[in-house]
Structure formats: C-alpha cells, structure tokens
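As a warm-up, study this chain.
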Amino acid sequence: MPLVSVCIPTLNRPDFLSQAIHSVIDQSFQDWEIIIFDNHSDTAEENRRLIEKLDNPKIKYYFSSERLPMAENWNNCLKKSSGAYVKYLMDDDILHPQCLEIMTSVFADYPSLALASVDRALFYRLPELSNIFFNQVSQNLTNRFSVMNGQDNHYLMYLDMRPFGTPTQVMFNRTIASTYNLFFDQYFGESCDTGMWINLLRFGDGALINLKLCAERKHLQQASKKWSAKTFADNFLKTKSTIYQYLNLEYKNKLSQKTPEFLTGSIILLNFIISLRKLHIGAALDFGHHFLISNYLSGYSLLVYWQEIQAMLSRKKNIYDISVLQKTLN
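Now compare it with the structure written out below.
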C-alpha cells in the first residue's frame, strides 16, 4: 500500500487536471497513489486520454455515471484510497515538489496528528509561482509549524485564529477517518471540508505548517465564486454551531466571558453580510453564542462592521505564531 493517497475530484477541467497530476508526479516523495474521481465530466474522453497517455499504474481513474453533489464525489475518492494518509488536491490546484515529503515527515514525528495543513500560494498563471512559491522552501522546519490538541484547535477555530484551510492545504490520517466513519458531510454545504476538519480534530491533534506547499488557482469558474451571501451565512452558522457543540465547558465559559471587542471576526463578517442582505439577525443567536447580544449588534453601523473585519484579518496574520495562540488559550 502507498503511504499517501492523493485524491483529485474533477469536473470539466482537463487542462488544469493535467497540471495537478504532474505536480504529484514531480514530487520528491514518491510513495503515493493518485485517485481521480470524475464527477461525470463533459470532458471525460479528454480525461481518459490524459490518463492513458501517462500510463502510470499509480494513477487510478474512476468515472461517475451521474453528476453527484460535491461532498459525495469527494467521498468517492476517499473510499477508493488505500494510503495511511490522504491528501486532497483540487483539480485546478498544484502541489509544491516537496509538499508530500515535508507533510509526511511531520506526521512521522507526531503520530497523534489527525490532520496537518500548509500555507498556500495564490496564482492565476503558472509562471507567477516562480518567486512566491518554488523558491521559499527549506528543509529546516524549526519554528515553522505548531501542533495543538483537538480542544485547543476547536477553540481557536471558533475564534478564527486557527483556520486549516481548503482540501488542497490539508493532509489527514486515513485510519482515524475510517475508524470513526468520517466523511465529507453535505450538511455543511460548500463548507463540507471545514466540517470534516472539525470532526477529525475530535480524535487527534492538528498541525499548521508555515510553508507555502501548495498553490490554488484563482479563476472565474471556482465554486466559491458562485456562493451567495445567504449560502455563506448558512454554512458559517452550521460550522460554528458544530464547533461549539464539541467545546468543553472550560472553553464555553471562556467564550461567555469575552468582551464584545474580542468578538470573532467571522461573526462580525456574518452580521455585516446579514445587514447588507437584510436577513434575520436572530439566526446568529440560535446556537449558543450567548455572548452575542442582539441590542449590541443592532447598534453596530456598517462602518464599525468593516473596521472589525479589518481587525480580524490582522489577527489572522498571527495564525502561525505559537506565542500569540498560547496567549489566547490562556
């Protein structure tokens, strides 16, 4: 069995898919398999010709007989995987040549890890990566990553200070996923990846690696560009309520003692969107945010919302600074 299963769900992107596959073939670490699950692409013949031309027994291609919801197609990849670790790669993204090598080394050093996430570069065209991506990796990982237990990770995720990012950024322990029957849950909609990270962290530790070991392509066909404000709000409420459900009493008490000035930036962002869309503000109070009081929020102007969003973005700059995170936990 391979050590790593690289799962690539794909739909109608043969050119991008080719680049994604080659970024795995070019890895410094070679103990991998690629699982491609085609979600009934119109370009299926192009995809098949690509796989046939590569003629690599480590690349396995599956085709769905019908168009499936996103989470279900992702789960099909997971069900076909056999590696100790699972690394998703979206079909329009690519991996740094040392991505698998470095991520597997962190798992080897920390057997308690349920998942690990790397930083990402953003690009529009491949040549743009030459400076911001391929020239920044060193084998020396000292002070470049942090490991925390599940409860600490949940608490910091709730405060948006410990984001684990997109599937392309994450590698997770397949044994934990299979033991506890964890899959991407359509309940979370387009945030089903975040739902998966939340559940994995119930059963192990999480690591953030401060190296840009993957790159995500920005283009107009991205699924996230089709989200409405209502979709964002619904997904946000579901993920936050789930995290809150798994917090221990100590951390729930900490949240109840937070001052309004320490409100998480995403909650402010959500209510900013709610204000713009004139959605019902009470929805944000339904799942245990007892420190959010409606009269406080109703007094917020859109300018203050925007200022809080900027403060949230500033806090996110510290997600790899372990001293800042430990101070928040205390």
